[in-house]
Specification:
By secondary structure, the protein is mainly beta. The chain is about 10% helix and about 50% strand. The radius of gyration is 18 Å and the shape is elongated.
């Protein structure tokens, strides 16, 4: 399994827990809770100040691993991930620098 390029994300990055939890009300007003899965995680990764070379490296990794799992280093913890459903969200920053927001789904 390939690893994501060794480029450190910012502290604005987060890990969000996901579940397929649904809470509805019965006709008598009591809650009906359904949960088909829980404990899954989605990683929102934020980068700032990426160089053109780092941007090209991330784009090449996405192209080569768009459907494959890869290792992502989350502050010393290795997570097995796939790219999330949203596109890579690039934004120009300072001259010749880029920001990026992307989602990874923990396998």
């Amino acid at each position: 399994m390939s690893a994501f390029p060794a480029i450190a994300p910012t502290y604005a990055s987060t890990i969000d827990e996901e579940s397929d939890r649904s809470v509805d009300r019965a006709t008598d007003g009591s809650p009906i809770v359904r949960e088909f899965y829980s404990g899954k995680e989605r990683v929102v990764v934020v980068f700032e100040g990426l160089t053109a070379a780092e941007r090209a490296t991330i784009k090449a990794h996405r192209a080569a691993h768009s459907l494959l799992a890869f290792d992502f280093d989350w502050d010393g913890t290795i997570l097995s991930c796939v790219y999330g459903p949203s596109a890579l969200k690039w934004k120009p920053e300072k001259p010749d620098r880029w920001g990026l927001r992307m989602e990874l789904v923990v396998v």
